[in-house]
Specification:
By secondary structure, the chain is mainly α. The protein has three domains: about 180 residues, CBS-domain, CATH 3.10.580.10; about 200 residues, Clc chloride channel (Orthogonal Bundle), CATH 1.10.3080; about 200 residues, Clc chloride channel (Orthogonal Bundle). It contains 24 helices and six strands. Strand 2 and strand 3 form a beta hairpin. Helix 9 packs across helix 13, helix 14 packs antiparallel against helix 15 and helix 14 runs parallel beside helix 16.
Length: about 625
């Protein structure tokens, strides 16, 4: 370890200073020790559980409200039990009901809150990214009410999106009422959103994964713990109020064979391509509505015209369609009827969603994906009878794969399909199919159905995470050990003369300033010493303002970078703490940037091995497009 060097600037009253010094490091700016899990996590977890319980109540109330509006609008009866609009006998009057609902939603959006438009998750992501997870309190009431009206009057949406959005709004409002950080408010928002999904489908594990993949923008214990506890509480509440049965019951399936797994991979790839088409179609429709010469308040009613017209010819496209999903997974709908269902559901849903009304995406995507998967599975069974494909598994894979491709939430999609059906033998086909869909989607679509809207505003949204390289590297491996300290009593003029002499050490850009007894006083730069503000007859201590900023040599580069940002400085004094504190180096911004060379190097192609060079003395053939 290099000892601290203190140059001797000749002058009559100069005091001899030993080359090795032990500064007294009291009253310095040192970064706080960071930890992912602190007692604060207990507080946020407790709040998350309370938010989850409230979200569970909201989910139950919204379900009842949808049932009430559906019964009133389509059957003229006062009943809050969940009902499907598919059995209505309104005839041509079915064209009017969705339009009326669209009119009400448009008015609520214009005069209540524009935030109720859309399907929930992208709007929550936007608030997390750009507004410190602050969602207006009125959204907590207007979002579920508008969704209940839109869905209850025949909108082809699922209730899960609005419930997720409402749960997130609850968490955000609680975070705004209490004294929490922006990160903690994000945790509460994510916990509420995930709890809403759990309360709807009884899928706590996939809800946690969805929060990680789409909302938290991090994978850390401090955020996962509150969200996981919130989902557990919501699942327990749902079990007490609704029961513990699977949401989409289907006959037991058998373990698929090797050839069948390959078939499900190919099926997932095809569904992944469909998810790209579906995502682009939704936003093409949205672009078309943007060009209409009328106020956006009227768009939901205009889109509802298509909903009603399609619902007249295909009543199953109206409403949430959870029974459709269960019938597809059970094989009760097949052939031409199935194709007609998912095609018309796609048209109805894309137009309605593109119009900016309030509703969710999960249930419609599951209907479309399940229909595509079941149809492809039936085609494979007919074309290759011996491959061992089960049409029901194909429907399950299609249902999950289209959501994986559209949302890029692969793990959440796999686990969701398992939790909603309780079919363990479907896990391997789900993993294979959803991964293939994710691969195809990523190749052809940089954004997802959740991030496209944000990306169109010029913001790059990354939902992929990697460990911060600065968190893996230590200060001691990058700090400069050649440190030159100056005495606080030295005169500015003499120091300037020494610096201009170009002797060893005088070319440094930063100098620790120490007292004669060895105490660290601060740091001065060449600009401080050579600038016009420094008086020749003044002492160096007169130029020091504020306590010195230090960093332990065992700290991470991330802690050092954050410390620099907090203090608005470009260099830190590095100290050793394995014994008496002493200065052992200096760390600058350039030293931190140097740490990124490792990350860049890891992303570059390595040279071929010696064994490979023996077989290919001229080198392997270049990759397509690399020449």
């Amino acid at each position: 370890m290099t000892e601290l060097e203190v140059p001797h600037i000749p002058r009559e009253d100069a005091l001899p200073v030993a080359p090795s010094m032990v500064p007294a490091l009291e009253a310095v700016h040192a970064p706080r020790q960071t930890s992912s899990v602190t007692p604060r996590v207990l507080y946020i977890s407790g709040l998350s559980v309370l938010v989850a319980l409230a979200a569970g109540v909201v989910a139950l109330v919204l379900t009842k409200l949808i049932g009430l509006i559906t019964n009133l609008a389509f059957y003229g009866r006062l009943d809050a039990s969940f009902a499907s609009p598919a059995e209505n006998h309104l005839g041509l009057w079915v064209l009017v009901v969705p339009v009326l609902g669209g009119l009400v939603v448009g008015v609520m959006a214009r005069y209540g809150s524009k935030a109720i438009r859309g399907h929930g998750i992208p709007e929550a992501m936007e608030q997390i990214l750009f507004n410190e997870s602050r969602i207006p309190a009125r959204v907590t009431f207007l979002k579920p009410l508008s969704a209940a009206i839109a869905i209850g009057t025949g909108g082809p949406f699922g209730a899960e999106g609005p419930i997720i959005a409402t749960g997130g709004a609850l968490g955000s409002v609680v975070g705004q009422m209490l004294r929490v950080t922006a990160d903690e408010r994000k945790m509460l928002l994510s916990a509420g959103a995930a709890a809403g999904m759990t309360a709807t489908f009884g899928t706590p594990v996939s809800a946690v994964l969805l929060a990680i993949e789409l909302l938290l923008f991090e994978y850390r214990a401090r955020s996962i713990i509150p969200v996981a506890l919130a989902c557990s509480a919501a699942a327990a509440m749902r079990a007490a109020l609704v029961g513990t049965g699977p949401v989409f019951a289907m006959p037991n399936i058998a373990q698929p064979g090797a050839f069948a797994i390959v078939a499900y991979v190919l099926l997932g790839a095809v569904v992944g391509a469909v998810s790209v088409v579906v995502t682009k179609a939704v936003y093409r429709v949205e672009d078309a509505f943007e060009k209409l010469p009328v106020h956006w308040m009227w768009w939901p009613a205009i889109g509802a015209v298509a909903v009603g017209a399609i619902g007249y010819f295909a009543p199953r496209t109206l409403g949430v369609g959870y029974t459709n999903i269960e019938d597809i997974l059970s094989g009760k709908i097949a052939g031409a009827a199935l194709v007609v269902l998912f095609v018309l559901k796609l048209v109805s849903w894309s137009i309605a969603l593109g119009s900016g009304t309030s509703g969710g995406t999960l249930a419609p995507l599951f209907t479309i994906g399940g229909g595509v998967g079941a149809s492809l599975g039936a085609l494979l069974v007919w074309a290759v009878p011996g491959v061992g494909v089960d049409v029901r598994i194909a429907a399950l894979v299609g249902m999950a794969a289209i959501f994986a491709g559209a949302s890029h939430a692969t793990l959440a999609s796999v686990v969701f399909a398992f939790e909603t059906t309780r079919q363990p033998m479907g896990l391997l086909p789900l993993l294979a199919g959803c991964t293939a869909a994710y691969l195809v989607s990523c190749l052809f679509m940089k954004t997802s159905i959740m991030t496209e809207k944000i990306a169109r505003r010029g913001t790059h949204v990354r939902t992929e995470y990697s460990v911060d390289v600065l968190d893996q590297l230590l200060v001691r491996d990058f700090a400069s050990r050649s440190v030159v300290a100056l005495l606080a009593a030295d005169r500015v003029a003499e120091t300037r003369a020494w610096m201009l002499s170009n002797v060893d050490g005088s070319r440094h850009t930063g100098f620790p300033i120490v007292e004669e007894g060895g105490a660290l006083l601060g740091v001065l730069t060449r600009r401080d010493l050579l600038g016009p503000g420094a008086k020749d007859d003044g002492a160096l201590r007169d130029l020091v303002h504020g306590a010195p900023a230090v960093i332990a040599e065992g700290a991470t580069q991330r802690e050092a970078a954050d410390h620099m940002v907090d203090l608005g400085i470009g260099r830190l004094v590095v100290v050793a703490k394995d014994g008496p504190p002493k200065i052992v180096g200096m760390l600058t911004r350039s030293d931190i940037l140097t740490a990124h060379r490792r990350r860049i190097a890891d992303s570059r192609l390595a040279e071929p091995s010696i064994l490979l060079k023996r077989f290919f003395p001229r080198g392997p053939a270049p990759a397509p497009g690399s020449g």
